[in-house]
Write a structure and sequence with these properties.
Belongs to the ribosome association toxin RatA family. This protein is 25% helix and 41% strand. The protein is of the alpha+beta class. It has a 7-stranded antiparallel β-sheet. Strand 6 and strand 7 form a beta hairpin. The termini are far apart.
């Protein structure tokens, strides 16, 4: 069986839970927390509603060498103000399961991202993970950490 990798990041956000939840549960804000070089763009029609179970979001992103990739995720679970989970339905990963948890703590919110992912192509996917995929994901979340700290800091 192919390797399932784990990436987990926790960040303290000095803001009220509702404000943090409102920002992260709005798909229109995804581009704001993605590095500009990735040219992230939501391509599915979005309305003013917050995320909901069954919602499908499509977008294009250029994670490597400027080559655009189509990606589709589905919001599979939502507990308002606590967590939501998205899973890739089409895109570059064989498995992408991303949990977003929010917990009110003194002075703000503790936000934890937990991502289980698997790459296609067997040993080639594992090699790609070692050579650049893991580093790219870590850089993406470091960027998000900085942007969120600036926005809510």
């Amino acid at each position: 069986m192919a390797s399932v990798f784990l990436l987990q990041r926790t960040q303290f956000i000095p803001a009220p839970l509702q404000q943090v939840w409102d920002f992260f549960s709005d798909p229109n804000n995804l581009a704001k927390i993605t590095p500009p070089y990735m040219r992230f763009r939501v391509t599915s029609p979005q309305d003013d509603r917050k995320i909901y179970p069954g919602q499908v979001i499509t977008y294009t992103v250029c994670p490597l060498l400027g080559v655009p990739l189509e990606w589709m995720t589905e919001i599979v679970h939502v507990r308002d103000g606590e967590y939501f989970v998205d899973e890739q339905r089409a895109g570059p990963y064989r498995l992408w399961h991303h949990q977003h948890h929010f917990r009110e703590v003194p002075g703000g919110v503790e936000m934890t991202d937990t991502i289980h992912y698997r790459l296609p192509l067997g040993w080639l996917g594992r090699l790609a993970h070692t050579m650049f995929v893991r580093r790219q994901l870590e850089n993406l979340f470091a960027y998000r950490y900085r942007v969120v700290a600036e926005r809510f800091g």
